[in-house]
Amino acid sequence: MNTETTSEAALDREYLPARARILEIAAALDRIERAAGDVADAPRLKQLRAAIALLLEDEPGRAERVQLLFSRDYDQRWRETFKIAR
Amino acid sequence: MFYIDPHIHMVSRTTDDYETLAKMGCVAVSEPAFWAGYDRGTVDGFRDYFEQLTTFESSRAASYGIQHFTWLCINAKEAENVALSREVIAMIPEFLDRPGVLGIGEIGLNKNTHNEAIVFLEHVDLAMKTDEQILIHTPHLEDKYQGTRMILDMLTDDSRVDRSRVLVDHVEEHTVRYVLDEGFWAGMTLYPVSKCTPARAADIVEMVGPERLLVNSAGDWGPSKPTAVPDFILEMRRRGHSHELIRRVVYDNPREFFSQSRGFVFNPPEVSEASSCD
User: Fold this and answer.
1) What is the pTM of this model?
2) Which end of chain A is more exposed for a tag (fewer CB within 10 A), N or C?
3) Do A84 and B206 lie within an 8 Å CB cutoff?
């Protein structure tokens, strides 16, 4: 869809909110690390790290790829598993 | 700007919320049946709920000039009890000819289980036999992608289903194209943490266009914002989108989709937007 927003205008609008959200994520990771115990190998923490790495990819569709990263797989044979006829 | 909230659970909201919605330009709401926060135990519990949805709630909305429409079903969260679900499905036709009833909904999946799929299919069968429209709930968070694909499988397998009469709700970036590409309508729900934000909903409009796309608040008893649709309108305006485009998503599209239901008797606002405080 054609919008009249320029990338420069979008950057102006998004810079401070994005900066703030990045700080929130940084602080959340610090908080988890500071807390008692060790979750370095926890699958959910690994998932968060993978999602952060994904943000640095140089192609559009990052939000969709992050969503899929946090999603269960779809098995197109699910009907057979559930014994539900077409 | 006048708008319609196509998915909001007003039984969970206060009368003050109706007043606020009216002040913000809401002229109609559609309320799907949903989970009360606990599992109801009897078919009579649902009968009372449907009575509330089709009588009291519409009169409460009318006090503020808002037209109230509704959808009936047993929610996916309660579908593990298949026996009760079947009793409810058998009882639903008692209410289908009441004023303001738009169809069967919000049916769908929650944890993508066998029993949920069985109850979903039986709801679809009821809708086909009674010629009703369908409004669909897709699961949250990690279950959404898998559940949405399963729902689309079940719908596209049934040759009786007219896809233009089905709204698949709670779409996000990773599910919206599947829904639209199959010819269904898609709803974006503006809901803190677990669904879409106004900014991301605006992104989706920019990426896939406004055709067959709706936006709703799904305001309910949980953390939610019944005025989320005006937040979306503001976000779109801030980005410079036209009045016509915004109006299409928040007013024309829900009106067009609902107009396929015999229960949708809609009285447009008498004041034109040009002369309203838009």
Assistant:
1) 0.95
2) C
3) no
* Secondary structure of residue B277 in the 3-state scheme: coil
* Per-residue pLDDT band at B277 (split at 50, 70, 90): very low
Query: B145–A72: do the CB atoms touch at under 8 Å?
Result: yes
CB distance from B211 to chain A under 8 Å?
A: no
Can you tell me which residue has the tokens 């004023």?
Answer: B99
Q: Which of B112, B174, B204, B205 to mutate to test the interface with A (most CBs of A within 10 A)?
A: B174
Q: Are B153 and A76 within 8 A, CB to CB?
A: yes
Gap between the Cα atoms of B256 and B273, Å rounded: 19
Q: Which residues of A touch B150 (CB under 8 A)?
A: 74, 78
Q: Categorize the per-residue pLDDT at A1 as very low, low, confident or very high, splitting at 50, 70 and 90.
A: low
d(CA B32, CA B75): 9
- Decide if B142 and A71 are in contact by the 8 Å CB cutoff: yes
CB nearest A5 (choices: B146, B173, B239): B239
B153 contacts on A by Cβ (under 8 Å)? 76, 78-79
User: pLDDT digit string (tens) for B75-101?
Assistant: 999 999 999 999 999 999 999 999 999
Burial of A72 (0-12, 13-18, 19+ CB in 10 A): middle
**What does the alpha-carbon distance between residue B136 and residue B26 come to, in Å, rounded to a whole number?**
22
Strands B166-168 and B133-137, by their bridges, are parallel
Q: Which stretch of B101-115, B122-136, B162-176, B180-194 has the lowest confidence by average pLDDT?
A: B180-194
